[in-house]
Automatic annotation (TrEMBL):
This is NAD(P)-binding protein. Belongs to the short-chain dehydrogenases/reductases (SDR) family. One of its GO terms (biological process) is carbohydrate metabolic process. InterPro entries: NAD(P)-bd_dom_sf, Sc_DH/Rdtase_CS, SDR_fam. The keyword Signal does not apply.
């Protein structure tokens, strides 16, 4: 088999995503928005996929204004394979192709394993695992058809590696471990098509959603935040923008020999 090597680009040039098209699930807010913004700041056109339609529209309007790239917003239930298939056809038609996918859509529910209903358990798996697979599958189909390869970046969690405490969410942890292994499997299958598949595993981040959840718990929320911070070597939560450099690297030509890999971004939380 002929050995192919990436072009030896200037490292700054290698980070440019100009001329690329990126789709981001869960891009309307939080970590998904920050990663989508990072791709746009690096020159990529972006397609925001999120059930939060109004927030998605606001997100892409902001990105178009501040980053000067074409951006579109799409409402979709990623756990519905038929919706996902139609959606990716429409995104490719609108933007003229697809080079990058980031699967940041995900849900969680805190609770004791003994108390989860079957419906709750299935829903978490449907969104976090099935949704990741359906989107990756459709992105890969379009990348294979175009013949240019691409980068698919899944979003797992440090919960794929550790068991969170003091709060419990066993189904969520299991889904993120599944996403991590799915990433490795797809990386092996699709490497011959020049499609790289990698995963980012965030730790605790100071997102607006986490602030709301902790705030609703009053003193218990304050104590939980202190626990998270105290068990992190950096003694703090991550800021959403601290994922921007990681996602751009994995999407860029500078990561041309990186596939199947997991980058844990947790301030060292999983080291102890």
């Amino acid at each position: 088999m002929e050995q192919l090597s990436a072009k030896n680009l200037n490292v700054v040039e290698g980070f440019s995503l100009k001329g690329k098209v990126a789709a981001v699930t869960g891009g309307a807010r939080g970590l998904g928005f920050e990663m989508m913004r990072a791709l746009a700041e690096s020159g990529a056109e972006v397609a925001c996929i999120d059930l939060l339609d109004e927030m998605g529209q606001q997100a892409v309007t902001q990105i178009e204004k501040e980053c000067g790239v074409k951006a579109s917003s799409w409402s979709c239930d990623v756990s519905n394979d038929e919706e996902v298939t139609l959606l990716f056809d429409e995104i490719v038609q609108r933007h003229g192709g697809l080079d990058i996918l980031v699967t940041a859509a995900g849900i969680n529910k805190i609770g004791n394993a003994i108390d989860y209903t079957a419906a709750d358990f299935r829903k978490i798996f449907d969104v976090n695992v099935s949704g990741t697979f359906f989107c990756a599958q459709q992105a890969a189909k379009h990348m294979m058809k175009a013949g240019k390869g691409g980068s698919i970046i899944t979003v797992a969690s440090m919960s794929a590696t550790i068991t969170n405490t003091p709060q419990s969410h066993a189904p969520y942890n299991a889904t993120k471990a599944a996403v991590k292994q799915l990433t490795r499997s797809l990386a092996c299958e699709w490497a011959s098509h020049k499609i790289r598949v990698t995963t980012i595993s965030p730790g605790y981040f100071d997102t607006a959603m986490n602030q709301t959840i902790l705030g609703q718990q009053g003193e218990q929320g304050v104590a939980l935040r202190k626990f998270w911070e105290g068990h992190c070597p950096q003694k703090r939560l991550g800021q959403p923008h601290e994922l921007k450099g990681v996602v751009v690297f994995l999407a860029s030509e500078n990561a041309s020999f990186v596939t199947g890999s997991e980058i844990i971004v947790d301030g060292g939380y999983t080291l102890w």
